[in-house]
């Protein structure tokens, strides 16, 4: 197993020493390498296997905390998956029944549903005007994808989408990797992690993610927690790894530290 960065290794050892912990992973760009088409993403087999093994350690809870909607997450992350899956950046939560009593997804109000309809209509115009731009539909958001467009067209499509939605109150725009997501839901990954921390009553949280929206997760972490940015770029996470390919060894180190 390759050596982990010494400071990350020390942080993991401290984390592993707690009785009850939560290990939460983002999906795209973290468990799965980024790919052109969202439907083609899959978790790296070694990551999925180590995550499953970790879930069997006494006192360890595991969760996927994803920007994807839950239906799409189920399609790209075959079983076995963690029992706790947070989708749509926190708008949807799939949790075991013993935890479910503490949470119910809030249905959209009639106003939010109408607003999402307007957002989608406007983004459909933008996507239709740019070659290789496409849309992804979520229960509370619509996402413009430009990964397959040429750089110039991608930049134009994103700018046009921002402009098209600028006058809509109640719509939050989320930047991501070659995407712009317009959501009418106002939760985020940080709120979801805090909810899990309290509900599971864990003493420490490890969260790994690669994208802009994962920063909300890193920002709620404290001294006992471990935040790991996957890839380069500015981040509130204290630690980083280079790519999703580094995650299996990190999880395996944690497994051996817990045993
Ligand atoms: O929070 P995550 O689980 O990382 O989800 C964030 C977004 O991931 C997906 O888009 C990203 O991955 C795609 C597949 O690799 C890639 O084609 C796209 O360019 C990336 O932005 C997903 O489609 C979005 O809905 C998620 O919000």
Describe what this molecule looks like in 3D.
With 259 residues, the chain is of the alpha/beta class. The protein has 2 domains: 6-105 and 187-258, 3-Layer(aba) Sandwich (Rossmann fold); 110-183, Hypothetical Protein Ta0175, Chain: A, domain 2, CATH 3.90.1070. The chain contains 9 helices and 11 strands. The chain has helices at 6-16, 45-55, 70-76, 97-100, 110-128, 151-165, 189-200, 215-219, 247-258, and strands at residues 21-25, 60-65, 84-87, 92-94, 134-138, 141-145, 172-176, 179-183, 204-209, 226-230, 239-241. The strands form 2 sheets. A 7-stranded mixed sheet has the order 4-3-2-1-9-10-11, sandwiched between helices. A 4-stranded antiparallel sheet has the order 5-6-8-7, with helices on one face. β2 (60-65), α3 (70-76) and β3 (84-87) form a beta-alpha-beta unit. α2 (45-55) runs parallel beside α9 and α5 (110-128) packs antiparallel against α6 (151-165). The structure holds the ligand O=P(O)(O)OC[C@H]1O[C@H](O[C@H]2O[C@H](CO)[C@@H](O)[C@H](O)[C@H]2O)[C@H](O)[C@@H](O)[C@@H]1O.
């Amino acid at each position: 197993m390759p050596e982990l960065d010494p400071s990350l290794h020390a942080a993991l050892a401290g984390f592993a020493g707690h009785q009850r912990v939560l290990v939460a992973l983002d999906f795209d760009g973290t468990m799965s390498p980024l790919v052109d088409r969202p439907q083609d993403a899959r978790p790296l087999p070694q990551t999925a296997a180590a995550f499953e093994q970790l879930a069997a350690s006494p006192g360890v809870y595991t969760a996927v905390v994803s920007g994807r909607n839950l239906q799409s997450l189920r399609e790209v992350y075959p079983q076995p998956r963690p029992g706790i899956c947070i989708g749509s950046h926190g708008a949807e939560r799939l949790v075991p029944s013993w935890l479910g009593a503490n949470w119910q997804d809030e249905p959209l109000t009639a106003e939010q549903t109408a607003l999402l309809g307007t957002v989608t209509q406007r983004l459909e115009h933008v996507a239709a005007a740019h070659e290789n731009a496409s849309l992804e539909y979520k229960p509370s958001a619509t996402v413009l994808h430009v990964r397959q467009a040429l750089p110039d067209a991608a930049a134009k499509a994103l700018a046009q989408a921002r402009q098209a939605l600028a006058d809509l109150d109640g719509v939050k725009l989320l930047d991501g990797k070659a995407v712009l997501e317009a959501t009418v839901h106002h939760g985020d990954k940080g709120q979801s992690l805090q909810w899990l921390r309290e509900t599971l009553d864990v003493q420490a949280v490890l969260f790994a993610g690669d994208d802009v929206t994962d920063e909300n997760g890193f920002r709620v972490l404290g001294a006992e927690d471990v935040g790991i940015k996957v890839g380069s770029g500015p981040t509130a996470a204290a630690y980083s790894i280079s790519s999703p390919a580094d995650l299996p060894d990190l999880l395996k180190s944690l497994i051996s530290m817990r045993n």
